[in-house]
Every structure is written in structure tokens, then in C-alpha cells.
TrEMBL record:
Residues 130-243 form the Phosphatidic acid phosphatase type 2/haloperoxidase domain. InterPro entries: PAP2/HPO, PAP2/HPO_sf. Pfam families: PAP2 (PF01569). This is Phosphatidic acid phosphatase type 2/haloperoxidase domain-containing protein. It comes from marine sediment metagenome.
């Protein structure tokens, strides 16, 4: 009788034990996702600013290559600016208008926020992650270029003062040429979006579209070519850095599982750029 009573107690208790051992995660609400994503944006921005403190020899060599490449373009700024501006009228108006409108900070952040919000409301983690990457990268690079513009104080081509005129911390916008804000914001988005595609042709098309706002500012006499080149370098470095950080925060990415493992294995640094002293432009490895 004693054994029968013990068996009965265990039999009755078994369902409760099974129920207690089953861990069910609460459903993710949009509000919780939003809070998590906003936190990831801010910490991602901080991560991108902290990266130079962790650079080693290879990263500093690449940074030196960026500076050398920009300096090389700088030597020909007058000639390139004159040539590009002389061909302005041959460019269709809709292309010039697109470059001016899309590169503005207001429209840029409206577009990036739209991507993120669509991913949030559809609960699509891949799209949410892309939106976080877009917003955080634009905010990080945008703030940096504002600081650099003021600190460098380079005169714009339209000022007529020449490419070698610098007046640091001058509040007049005529001395806010370096680097190009339109180029930086537009190409930051293009580079982040380009990561969603494996085809080099798709990437090239996206990068070309992303470069138009920066080039349009050269057409309009607002920036020199070296302003554009250095802005592109900042864009790529910022996106790579924040993208690397978000690998820790999100499970899903634009690549499948096998590609993701290869991506993380090959990604040894936050700045995956190669600039040669004899290269005019940007050389990127994928």
C-alpha cells in the first residue's frame, strides 16, 4: 500500500514537473524590439568611435594609406574641380536634383528611418538589423563630418579662395568644405545597402547611385574632389565598424549561416580598406 501511494503521488506530480521544466520565451513586442534596437544604435555609434584606440599596425597602415590617397587627390583638386564643373550642364537635371535632395541630412535620415520602421512593424529581424546599421552609421559618420568640417575649416571652391585656404573653427559655411557631408551620408547608405547583395554588379550599381550626391556637390562648386574621396573612406570605415558590432547583437543577417561564418572568419578588422599612394579613388575589398 505504501508503494502504491508513493507511485500515485509521483504520477500526479509528473505533469507539474514537466510544465515547470518547459521554458517558454515571452513573445517579442514591438516596443521591446524598439528599445533594443535604439540601444544597439547608440552603443554601435560608441563602438565606431572607440575603434581607433584598438587599432594595431595594419589598421594604422591602412589609415596612412587613406591619408596618402587623399593627399594625392588634393594635389590635383583645382584641375579636377574645374573639369567636373565645366561638364555640369551636360548632366541631366533630374540626376543633379537627385544628388542635392537625397544627400541632405533631413531626407537621408527620413529614408534610413523608413527602412528601420518597416522592419520593426513587420518584425523582420534582417530588415531591422539593416535599419539599425543604416541609422547608426549615418549618425556616427554625420556627427564626425560636422566636427571635421569645423576643425579643418577648408574653403569651398565657390568661395574663390583656392584649395589651400584653411580657417579652422570659422562658423561661416564657406569654410566647411572638408569632408563632403552629402557624399558621406549618401555613400554610407549605399555601402550598408550594398552589403545585402552578393553580386558585384549589384554592389557597383548601388555604389554608383550612392556616389552621385557627392559628385553633384563638386558640380555645384561646394566641394573639392579630395573632400569627396575622404568622405567615402569615412563612410566605408564607419559601416564596417558598426556592422561588426551588430554581429554580436543580432542572430539574423543578410547572408545565410554558411556565408555568415565565412564572413566573421575573414573579418579581422573594423576597417577593410586598401588605399595606395598611387591610387586616385577608393579601393575596397569585399
Amino acid at each position: 500500500m505504501r508503494y502504491l501511494l508513493l507511485f500515485t503521488i509521483l504520477l500526479l506530480a509528473k505533469p507539474s514537473f514537466a510544465q515547470d521544466s518547459l521554458v517558454v520565451d515571452p513573445p517579442q513586442t514591438k516596443w521591446n524590439m524598439f528599445k533594443y534596437d535604439v540601444g544597439s544604435m547608440f552603443t554601435g555609434i560608441g563602438y565606431s568611435y572607440a575603434r581607433p584606440f584598438h587599432w594595431q599596425g595594419r589598421q594604422w597602415a591602412q589609415f596612412g594609406g587613406v591619408v596618402a590617397g587623399t593627399a594625392l587627390v588634393y594635389t590635383a583638386d583645382y584641375e579636377t574641380s574645374k573639369f567636373i564643373r565645366a561638364n555640369r550642364e551636360s548632366v541631366p537635371n533630374w540626376i543633379r536634383d537627385y544628388g542635392e535632395i537625397y544627400g541632405s541630412p533631413e531626407n537621408n535620415f527620413l529614408a534610413t528611418s523608413g527602412v528601420y520602421l518597416f522592419g520593426l512593424f513587420t518584425k523582420n529581424e534582417k530588415l531591422r538589423r539593416t535599419g539599425v546599421l543604416l541609422v547608426a552609421s549615418a549618425a556616427s559618420s554625420g556627427l564626425l563630418q560636422q566636427v571635421l568640417k569645423s576643425a579643418v575649416g577648408r574653403a569651398r571652391p565657390e568661395s574663390g579662395l583656392g584649395k589651400d585656404t584653411f580657417d579652422p573653427f570659422n562658423s561661416n559655411r564657406r569654410f566647411h568644405s572638408f569632408p563632403s557631408g552629402h557624399a558621406l551620408l549618401a555613400f554610407t547608405n549605399a555601402y550598408a545597402i550594398g552589403k545585402q547583395f552578393k553580386s558585384p554588379w549589384a554592389k557597383a550599381g548601388i555604389y554608383t547611385i550612392g556616389a552621385i550626391p557627392g559628385i553633384s556637390r563638386i558640380w555645384d562648386g561646394q566641394h573639392w574632389l579630395s573632400d569627396f574621396v575622404f568622405a567615402i573612406a569615412i563612410s566605408v570605415a564607419t559601416v564596417e565598424s558598426i556592422d561588426r558590432y551588430l554581429d554580436r547583437k543580432y542572430d539574423k543577417k543578410y547572408n545565410d549561416a554558411a556565408e555568415r561564418q565565412a564572413y566573421l572568419k575573414d573579418k579581422k578588422m573594423s576597417l577593410d580598406l586598401n588605399f595606395g599612394a598611387g591610387t586616385v579613388g577608393v579601393v575596397m575589398s569585399f
